[in-house]
Write a structure and sequence with these properties.
The protein is an alpha+beta fold. The protein has 4 domains: 99 residues, no CATH class; 79 residues, Winged helix-like DNA-binding domain superfamily/Winged helix DNA-binding domain (Arc Repressor Mutant, subunit A), CATH 1.10.10.10; 305 residues, no CATH class; 62 residues, Beta Barrel (OB fold (Dihydrolipoamide Acetyltransferase, E2P)), CATH 2.40.50. 35% of the residues lie in helices and 24% in strands. Strand 23 and strand 24 form a beta hairpin. It is elongated. The chain starts with 10 loop residues before the first strand and ends with a strand.
Length: 606
């Protein structure tokens, strides 16, 4: 057929669709089934029948004995005209198009209009089996969708639900299942569907995976602690005070005369800049703290080796702090040391506040807090809770505002100030934590005032040059007491140790690069920690569906209030049945929980 002239009223194919030639020439004017008229080149179409065909509406469906024609052609060649005669007894535009559609289908025939051959029996069988399988798959898919609409699934439905799970976990942004169900393709809708059909239960926390965080500690070899001169402080009682269950004790306190010692795990001894441990910690930015378990920033073996109080003695970087009677820092010593540490919980330390050295520690902490408060430090003290998950059962325990906790917090803050001052005095580049002062009036004392102040508080920024940290009331500050858990603390230790050993230090630009990379990494860590804590708080409410408790009004607009639930450390919104001022206490009951959307709804009881 390619050598035949295409004339007006011919039947041709254009891009696999039938068309009628309205006008012939150097270009053809063709009409499609849709009524659309196009001008195309002759080589862009394939002639099926010379016509005459006055309208595509003349084309009629055809019935023929396909298998008999297939058996006749088997082993030979034929043309579209001959195949039309075999199938339908004539060669017309209707039979030509019907025959060609059989060729295009490829089940019994294949080729071009001038050169058509029959497929082999084996090929026909394979295609028949494939067609049967396709029909079965379509039927199975339809039955699956119907089960899902009813909220039911079978064990074999896991394969169908894989794309839903991938969307819920952030592996994909599409889901055929949700699309077929007419639902928006979002992680929340995917999560909701998986809960509805029972493929997931409430114990699945999707956020660490959804935000692509590592779920296991780094697996890199750690070297031996290098042999070097260390100040032996093992005769000085030292106490690592932390929450019960803490698995990374990286700071401890002791007293020598009027000197407060803050001992910090000497992580930099095993993780100099550019080492495998350093790079692994840098990629994570911080330890991931989750109610269901923590994911360490450094190899587990490093924690076992360096955690204070985990061995009989521990290598440390110790900061000796001297204060005057007003709580001002007057002197600092920083030494590589060897310490013997006793681990205590905050509750155990609280019981020892009448004993030495805890009496002195409390005095130092009180003077320090007064000193910082006088310099404008903000003490925003919201209730905290401890969320534990054991065998998918959630418990939430409020953390009491113990004096022992304040002692440790003050010591850590002032150790950061001491490290910053030392860096400034010795011209050591450090990642200084800075914060601009927010516009505010009197220092907040009530929860509603603290809530309002928190909204105004500027974000901490890390810089290579010192600047005040307004929220802490300090002229200079670095984070320096958690190198097992925060990467920039480790960078501070690397710089201090490098200076003490006479090694080459990171320059300010390298410090800024590390600070920027760390901020990017820990942004995801913070977000996931917040989402996971809310997830498990809502699971707790689902497990305690009759929950009732007290809330404190933080802010309101008319009768709509933002309410803090201290026993859950949860902020929520609720309608007030009567007008109440901020800081009023109200009774609440839970009325509903939407776990995928992290929403809990409460009613204020009258």
């Amino acid at each position: 057929m390619p050598d035949k002239v295409i004339s007006e009223n011919s039947l041709v194919l254009y891009k696999g669709r039938p068309a009628r030639v309205e006008q012939a020439g150097e270009k053809l004017e063709i009409e499609l089934e849709t009524g659309e008229v196009l001008k195309v080149r002759p080589k862009d179409v394939t002639l099926l029948h010379p016509g005459p065909l006055k309208s595509l509406k003349e084309i009629q469906p055809q019935q023929g004995d396909v298998e008999t024609a297939w058996e006749i052609v088997d082993g030979g060649q034929t043309t579209l005209q001959e195949l039309s005669d075999l199938l339908y007894g004539s060669y017309t535009p209707s039979t030509a198009l019907a025959a060609w559609r059989l060729v295009a289908e490829g089940r019994y025939f294949r080729g071009t209009p001038e050169d058509i051959s029959a497929t082999t029996p084996e090929e026909v069988k394979r295609q028949q089996e494939a067609k049967i399988a396709e029909a079965a798959n379509k039927q199975a898919w339809a039955e699956f969708l119907e089960r899902v609409r009813r909220g039911q699934i079978l064990p074999g439905d896991a394969a169908y639900l894989r794309d839903v799970e991938d969307l819920a976990l952030g592996h994909s942004n599409r889901s055929r299942v949700l699309r077929e169900l007419g639902r928006e393709e979002s992680p929340e809708n995917a999560h909701s569907l998986l809960l509805k059909v029972g493929y997931w239960d409430h114990s699945v926390d999707p956020y660490p995976v959804r935000f692509h965080l590592a779920l296991s500690p780094p697996e890199v070899d750690i070297p031996q602690v290098p042999g070097e001169a260390r100040l032996d402080l093992t005769d000085l009682p030292a106490f690592a005070i932390d929450d019960a269950g803490s698995d990374t004790p990286d700071d401890a306190l002791s007293v020598e005369g009027d000197c407060l010692w803050v001992h910090v795990a000497d992580v930099a001894a095993l993780a100099p800049p550019g080492s495998a441990v350093d790079l692994a910690a840098q990629a994570r930015g911080a330890t991931l703290h989750l109610p269901e378990g923590n994911v360490s920033m450094v190899p587990v073996e490093a924690v076992r080796c360096l955690g204070l109080g985990l061995n009989e003695t521990s290598p440390a970087l110790s900061l000796g702090l001297d204060f005057d009677a007003n709580g001002e820092l007057t002197g600092t010593r920083i030494v590589a040391s060897l310490v013997r540490v006793t681990r205590l919980t905050y509750g155990e330390a609280e019981a020892k506040l009448g004993e030495a050295p805890f009496v002195y520690l409390q005095q130092v902490a009180e003077r320090s807090a007064q000193y910082r408060r006088a310099k404008g430090a903000l003490f925003i003290d919201f209730p905290e809770v401890r969320i534990d998950v054991c065998h998918d059962v959630v418990t939430i325990e409020p953390l009491p505002p113990l004096r022992s906790r304040a002692i440790v917090q003050e010591a850590m803050v002032r150790a950061g100030e001491a490290a910053a001052r030392f860096g400034i005095q010795q011209d050591i580049p450090l990642p200084f934590a800075t914060q601009e002062r927010a516009e505010s009036g009197e220092l907040p004392t009530t929860l509603s005032q603290m809530f309002a102040q928190r909204r105004l508080t500027k974000r901490t920024q890390f810089k290579a040059s010192p600047a005040p940290h307004a929220g802490l009331g300090l002229d200079a500050y670095v984070q320096a007491t958690s190198p097992l858990r925060r990467y920039l603390d480790l960078v501070v230790h690397q710089q201090l140790r490098g200076y003490m050993r006479g090694d080459k230090l990171l320059d300010p630009q390298q410090i800024l690069e590390r600070a920027g990379a760390t901020e990017a990494a820990i942004g995801g860590v913070r977000r996931v920690q917040t989402l996971a804590e809310k997830h498990w708080t809502l699971v707790y409410l689902l497990q305690n569906e009759d929950w009732r408790g007290e809330g404190i009004i933080l802010d309101k607009r008319g009768r709509e209030a933002i309410i803090l639930i201290p026993s859950l450390a949860l902020e929520t919104r609720a309608h007030l049945p009567v007008d109440l001022p901020p800081d009023s206490t109200v009774s609440l009951s839970v009325t509903g929980v939407n776990l995928p959307r992290l929403e809990a709804h409460f009613r204020v009881l009258t």
